[in-house]
Amino acid sequence: MLTVSTVNVNGLRAAAKKGFVEWLAATDADVVCMQETRAEYEQLPEAVRAPEGWYTLLAPSADKGRSGVAVYSRHQPLERRIGFGSEEFDTSGRYAEIELDQLIVGSLYLPSGEAGTPKQDEKERFMEQFLPYLRELRSRAEQAGKEALVCGDWNIAHQEIDLKNWRNNRKVAGFLPEERSWLSRVFDELGYVDVVRRLFPEGPGPYSWWSYRGKAFDNDSGWRIDYHVATGGLAERAGSAVVEKAPSYDKRWSDHAPVTVSYA
């Protein structure tokens, strides 16, 4: 089995002080994809930037203190890549990728956006540029006889069963019709598979993000925006998936929870 986990850490330095280090030491994952690390390599404690037994790839944003992605692997990567060939986004800490013997794994932090603002324009530009890369990635993996997996915070709830209060969020970034349509293209046009939804077809959830506001966590009023998006061959090998939701509000080290999938 190969186990892959993805989590938006909501600031890696802060998460390290609240339980991330202990989680990483205990996890059975072979690969961990992280988003919103918001830290330079030298700002991280040794236990985080170079944990024993892990090969680490960190891709901070040129805009310090923002965004940032990382990929940790127990297996030495054959290749590493930061960015996806975008002049605008390759230094913004949005995408990093490693290549293993049979698998290419990417960590994605898609912009969150904000309806009716320049932030939403940025998100739409990112989606427009990233879609062709996903097509190229699948082709490259097929030619190499490998599978591809893009994990991360996609910042889009695809269906109504992917967020609890969908009726009140129809005009909110993350659940806009054009965003959901774009994600449908990833699945229907490019042939990728939403692995967790394949394993849990009925819903609701399982949610992976809960606002810090109000009682969202206690009431499980969440969103499912953290995905394992895989090529078909890999998706068929997914045997189990779990959202590692903290047992209580005070035990959280991020507003997201790790989404962990084991593949045969």
Automatic annotation (TrEMBL):
One GO process term, biological-process aspect: DNA repair
Q: How is the cofactor bound?
A: Probably binds two magnesium or manganese ions per subunit.
Q: Which cofactor does it need?
A: Mg(2+); Mn(2+)
Please provide, alphabetically and separated by semicolons, the GO molecular function terms listed in this UniProt record: double-stranded DNA 3'-5' DNA exonuclease activity; metal ion binding
Tagged with keyword Magnesium: yes
UniProt keyword Nucleus, yes or no: no
Instruction: Give residue ranges for domain Endonuclease/exonuclease/phosphatase.
Output: 6-256
Swiss-Prot/TrEMBL site (Interaction with DNA substrate) positions? 256
| Active-site feature positions | 109, 153 (proton donor/acceptor), 256 (proton acceptor)
SUPFAM superfamilies attached here? DNase I-like
Q: Where is this site: Transition state stabilizer?
A: 155
Q: Where is this site: Important for catalytic activity?
A: 226
Cite the entry's keywords alphabetically. Hydrolase, Magnesium, Manganese, Metal-binding
UniProt-annotated binding residues for Mg(2+) = 8, 36, 153, 155, 255-256
Q: Which domain of life is it from?
A: Bacteria
Q: Which PANTHER family match?
A: EXODEOXYRIBONUCLEASE III (PTHR43250)
| Similarity field | Belongs to the DNA repair enzymes AP/ExoA family.
Name of the protein described by the UniProt record: Exodeoxyribonuclease III
User: What are the top taxonomic ranks of the organism?
Assistant: Bacteria, Bacillati, Actinomycetota, Actinomycetes, Actinopolysporales
